[in-house]
Specification:
There is one protein chain. By secondary structure, the protein is an alpha/beta fold. It has four domains: 261 residues, TIM Barrel, CATH 3.20.20.70; 74 residues, no CATH class; 58 residues, Double Stranded RNA Binding Domain (2-Layer Sandwich); 73 residues, Double Stranded RNA Binding Domain. The chain contains 18 helices and 16 strands. The strands form four sheets. An eight-stranded parallel barrel has the order 1-2-3-4-5-6-7-8, surrounded by ten helices. Strands 11-12-13 form a three-stranded antiparallel β-sheet, with helices on one face. A hairpin with an 8-residue loop joins strand 11 and strand 12. The two termini are 37 Å apart.
């Protein structure tokens, strides 16, 4: 189709050059399969021969049958002192046995002279020899013109000669790279137009012009879109914008912008619905927190906090949403905070399946209590378990499952070198029965959690199903030093569902206690009503 844009994902190679990004060969295979299922046209697997991990990936990838994507091996042109047949890098590219090979060459005379230390004409020969040899060996060849935009600005004539060398040798695609990530969109647009007039004339057949940008000026996506608008039909990038320095152009933004805003075809509307899922999947395998503020796929991309905004969105979503969340597999979220109004509470209650009459005095009471608690330091945006308990307490739909009659936490440290030892003793009352329990733990909060469960499991054996899976402490007023209030956020799971609860106090143990009590109470409430627990997105 004439509006087709070919997508090229380099998460497995360029993306891994970002700080804190590391994938095993198994991780890379999993991601490649997901990218294939998503509809990416080209997947760059790595640089064969550069490290054992990439060598393992390409070896294992030989046994994978991709349904849509074409796998690419990446490398450089031959070295100046090597013949093409004896160049180790070129041989490694062939040994990878991928249908596509992507090679990069120098477009900027600064690099030719200061990095390669060769004559400009010799650099042209490296490019032409390498592309021609790979084509003769049956490969689809993508030529990445490294530092092209910087090279074009300093010596237009030579930069174009490097492209013509790749073109003469039969390159299937020529990709213009903004390797330093410092170009402006208007410069990219103008240069792409000029290159297109020289390189992709009708006499050149099916040669594709592509774009590869970095995000050092926060313009990776903008520059990619400008290039496509002016003639590029091949776009490179990474999932979530992972990459060296400030990252590569983010395909999770580029693809929906092309599909939804510019009416190009990349993966199609059905596949686009899995964009958020694959974005978060890659973050998970990278062992990185998925950034909430990512466009389209972030948890906050369609989150509404201000009461006026929520009121409008409830009536007409497009008032504050530029696209429908479901088109990219995301969801609308309404947050409750000190900025909330009645609309936020009503929307959130409905989302949680809590019947709440908008005319009920309880609604305003809930709003007022939230504002007061948030002023104290609570935050309910990430603690929907505590929010639901707050609502049900105000609508008389909740009863306390137990009462505290007291607890004591003891920490022993026998010497400077010794590890501290924590114990907790707790006394609770359930109905007319009292239970006393003690437990040891790794730290005072863990000891308190164990003692509380031990005391309650006699009455509520279903508590054995749950476990605390995350624990975060945030200092709220650091100027108060060791007397500062802290907010504790706890995540609890029962094997298939997860929920968050919150507690605030100047005492970290009491803040933890409040969050623990909410966590257990939330689970008991759901078990009592046999309602499904709220899945944590």
């Amino acid at each position: 189709m004439n509006n087709k844009i070919f997508t090229y994902d380099t998460t497995l190679r360029d993306g891994t050059q970002g700080e804190e990004i590391a994938f095993s060969a198994e991780d890379k295979l999993k991601i490649a399969k997901r990218l294939d299922a998503f509809g990416i046209d080209y997947i760059e697997g790595g640089w064969p021969g550069s490290n054992p991990k990439d060598m393992e990936f390409f070896e294992r990838a030989k046994g994978v049958r991709f349904q849509h994507a074409r796998l690419a091996a990446f490398g450089s042109t031959r070295r100046a002192k090597n013949s093409i047949e004896d160049d180790a890098n070129i041989r490694a590219l062939l040994d990878a046995q991928t249908p596509v090979v992507t090679i990069f060459g120098k477009s900027w005379l600064l690099h030719v002279k200061s990095a390669l230390h060769i004559a400009p004409e010799e650099n042209l020969a490296l490019i032409e020899d390498s592309v021609r040899f790979l084509k003769h060996n049956g490969k689809e060849v993508i030529y990445d013109a490294e530092h092209f935009f910087d090279g074009f600005k300093t010596d237009k004539s030579y930069a174009l000669k490097t492209l013509e060398a790749a073109q003469r040798a039969g390159a299937d695609s020529i990709v213009l790279c903004d390797t330093n990530g410092g170009s402006m969109p208007w410069d990219v647009a103008e240069i792409v137009r000029e290159v297109k007039s020289v390189i992709t004339t009708p006499s050149q057949g099916d040669l594709r012009l592509g774009i590869h940008t970095h995000n050092d000026a926060e313009l990776g996506v903008a520059n990619s879109l400008a290039a496509i608008q002016n003639g590029c039909v091949h776009v490179q990038g990474t999932m979530n914008g992972y990459g060296e320095r400030c990252g590569n152009a983010n395909l999770c933004s580029i693809i929906p912008n092309l599909e939804l805003k510019m009416k190009y075809h990349c993966v199609g509307p059905e596949k686009l619905k899995s964009l958020t899922e694959i974005s978060r999947y890659v973050s998970e395998l990278a062992n990185l927190t998925h950034r909430k503020n990512l466009a389209y796929v972030g948890e906050s991309a369609f989150a509404h906090k201000g009461g006026v905004h929520v009121s409008a969105v409830m009536k007409t979503p497009e008032t504050y949403e530029h696209v429908t969340p479901e088109t990219v597999g995301n969801i609308r979220r309404v947050l409750v905070s000190d900025l909330s109004g009645r609309s936020n509470v009503l929307y959130k209650a409905d989302e949680l399946g809590i019947p709440l009459d908008e005319k009920s005095p309880a609604v305003q009471k809930i709003v007022d209590e939230i504002k007061e608690l948030e002023h104290y330091g609570y935050r309910y945006e990430d603690a929907e378990g505590s929010f639901e308990l707050l609502v049900k307490k105000n609508t008389k739909e909740f009863k306390e499952f137990f009462d505290l009659e007291g607890f004591k936490v003891i920490i022993h440290k026998e010497s400077y070198e010794a590890q501290p030892h924590s114990e907790a003793i707790i006394k609770v009352r359930v109905g007319d029965k009292t239970e006393l329990a003690a437990a040891e733990g790794i730290g005072p909060v863990n000891a308190l959690d164990r003692a509380l469960r031990k005391a309650l499991e006699r009455f509520y054996p279903q508590l054995s199903q749950i476990k605390l899976t995350d624990y975060k402490v945030r200092v709220l007023d650091s100027q108060s030093a060791t007397a500062a209030k802290v907010r504790v956020l706890i995540e609890t799971q029962n094997g298939h569902d997860a929920w968050n609860t919150v507690g605030v106090s100047p005492d970290v143990i009491e803040a933890s206690w409040k969050a623990l009590v909410d966590s257990l109470s939330y689970h008991l409430l759901k078990m009592a009503t046999k309602a499904p627990l709220k899945n944590k997105e």
